[in-house]
Amino acid sequence: xxxxxxxxxxxxxxxxxxxxxxxxxxGSETIRYSxxxxxxxxxxxxxxxxxxxxxxxxxxxRGARIHxxxxxxxxxxxxxxxxxxxxxxxxxxxxxxxxxxxxLQFQLLLENPVQFFxxxxxxxxxxxxxxxxxxxxxxxxxxESVQPGTVFPLKIAQDLDIGSNTVQNYTISPNSYFxxxxxxxxxxxxxxxxxxxxxxxxxxxxELSLTxxxxxxxxxxxxxxxxxxxxxVDINDNAPEFLxxxxxxxxxxxxxxxxxxxxxxxxxxxAGTYGTVAYTLFQGxxxxxxxxxxxxxxxxxxxxxxxxxxxxxxxxxxxxxxxxGLSGKCTVIIQVVDVNDNAPELTMSTLTSxxxxxxxxxxVAIFSVSDPDSGDNGKxxxxxxxxxxxxxxxxxxxxxxxxxxxxxxxxxxxxxxxxITVTDMGTPRLKTEHNITVLVSDVNDNAPxxxxxxxxxxxxxxxxxxxxxxxxxxxxxxxxxKARCLFFQRYYYLxxxxxx
Length: 500
Fold this sequence. Notes:
About 15% of the residues lie in helices and about 40% in strands. The chain has 5 helices and 31 strands.
């Protein structure tokens, strides 16, 4: 009996080590799934149990659950069939914006015994958005002296879709003066340019109105239109030129509103109205880009707040237009610099409020930590108080298990208040604390003890006799033998009165 009890802790240690090996192996491979966005709620994604080589019947007893960052439940697991289903219709543009590919990472957590499996769900784009121009009308003032072949940049159309489903081409309504060509931008989007085919004559036709159409690559394609209004003006033979064609600047994400980002400058050799330059945000998406430019000075300032975790850089195009309608452009690349503005987050997956005493290495809690910041600002360290018989053990990336370091003794201490502290490595360091209470449950590990170490012969005999009578009384009551119960009760009272 003693040998079997002595081997039990060793066997549990071996099982725990094997569990850690299983966790490591589980984290080394990732199962990947793919499905189109806008798929209906309740749609079947995959049989997760089958793909992981698990029996369907073991999901419920092992406490299977899906875990991923955030509180919104996008996926659900049918523990009866092992099927992975959509909890709601998923919109790729809402979940990932312009990020491509759009991948949702999640884990399958098995609590008994603890085991993790990493999985990814990639949402593929469908053509559910049409191209859209931010303005219903573009105004171009073109001098009549402009030579055929001259190119006029036009504002781009926005399309929330990606890949071939975004804007692929531009067309212009039939006319005898212009045609349109499309070019690739550095970020993969296409922008239109208007090309003059024959010289304009203000006296013959002072104004033109053209329809610009943006087409995406869907099947069938979607489209959006805007009007180009062209005013033919008198001679202006010099277009503004920027001192730099490319500006690059870094801006901390916690910069205050209205702070200066950069100043651009263009010059025009013409005099008077034709030499006066006005600055505008040209190719930029004025709805989403948090910048504004001073029309006169060229100062670009911060207007909606920056967030490194949302957007890390902006590609802004600036136009300088003179009084005659000629324009030049430059590109401003603005890189958002991360600051430590997000405290770590702790998500508790499993919490055991009561732990039996005398048991080695019991799992008390399983939790995950996250920090949306980057670099050292997103690196985290977990700790608990040093004077507690508990250990924090990393199990998977950003997952930790809280276990007992040694067997607990309820008679020594019946309750522990544990503070889990998660600290990032940024400057200044931010931390999150999570408090849990663990109760130590009792086991029958203490034998009865006499209240005194020595007795006189008379007292000893009476004491032992009392003990035996009490013991027989208890067993008799438990056995529900009323006659024997009455006998022992009377005999006990008689003995007690004689002893006294």
